[in-house]
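ok so dumb question maybe but i'm new to this and my supervisor (M.) told me to 'just get the structure for Pyridoxal phosphate-dependent decarboxylase family protein' and walked off. so i did the thing. is this what she meant?? sequence i used:
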Amino acid sequence: MDPRLADDLHALPDLLDAASKLAAAALAGLDGRAAAVPPVAVEPAPLPLEGAGARGALDEFTRRWEPGFAASAGPRYLGFVTGGATPAALAGDWLTAAYDQNPASGMDSSAQDLERETVGWLAGLFGLGPEFSGAFVTGATMSTVTGLAIAREWLGERAGVTVSTEGAAALGPVTVLSGSPHSSVLKALSFLGMGRSSLRKVPVLPGREAVDVAKLAEALETLDGPAVVVANAGTVNTVDFDDLRAIAELKQRYDFWLHVDAAFGGFAALAPEHAALTAGLDRADSVVVDLHKWLNVPYDSAVQFTRRRDLQLRVFGNNAAYLGEIGETPDFLHLTPENSRRLRALPAWFSLVAYGRAGHREIVERCVALARDLGARIDGSPRWHLLAPVRLNVVCFTPAGEVTQNRIDTLVRAIADDGTTFLTPTVYDGRPALRAAFSNWRTTVADVERVFAVLEGLG
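this is what came out, is it supposed to look like this??
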């Protein structure tokens, strides 16, 4: 054994204590750390010939890289849709690394059963019945890939083609319909061989991002065969929701696979005031939910749900003698693109056990209230213009007066340079804009006040 490895093994308790102290200091200092750190070039270092040992690596990380890390786990990081990590989730994530389980197979540990329990709890949170099965994946993009891969197999089933055997070319052209699809849908279609051009945009309701269900019906009426419909339970700009029940009702007349992107909007199901927005989610064929957003578990973590595990197994099944037989309850390596995989379920399990439905409901409701607070402040300011109602946890707005993309880009840089908060740009209804997404468990009214003060100063 390399002497540095032997020394680190002997000193492991002290090493973990040092790493714990560094992590604790970083978390305790979130309030003073810049929400975003504009990148500064770091001179690349050569790979060491003789290692420095774990303490040496910790020291070099602290010196060279740690100062450039953003406070993305903090309460005023409002870019993209980014949660933090609850204390329980963080503890679960550390134990995930320590136990280093590979829940691909059920032959050697109980890790798969823990994942199945966690998936079942999550399905219950989102109102999905026992007909749904699911698995953990890296994020909403891979959840979308998984769901649409199952949809592709379903299209083949309708056409008498086994796509997983014969390939996407055997299926021929497909049609995917959606009103305001997330960009990851296009990425998934490209990845799966269905092609970006298979996506047809359907008109949305006036002043909305929600699909016009009547227009969707008209589009379905023109088709000669089955299709895939991608519906939204929370759009990225304004958290708008398609009428999932009305879309599902169209299945009585038209043949289509219903895939629902509920990456963060699905969490509306936890709050009684907003749960009606997700009505009909249980009638989907595949569902996307991202957990490193509103469940506040560390990156990376998401789940995919489907009611057609048989087709999922056909797509992702990985037969090999050393993997054992595929039983009545398939191992996870037969259900997602990954074979080896991290036990992403453990941080989610910890957070769900620690805070329960009520604790996560409180996070959702508080984030919605804070988004509405910021939206009301922006709406009352002459310096800003609110572009859409604050439907859930995202505030979409733009400066007053003439707005160009250059002006928005300049504002994004100025906000990042200030360091108090971080926002990301977007384009809504053809207008360059900013968006503030609230999903961090730490955020309070005091943070909204600080964010708005910065905006007023820059506006």
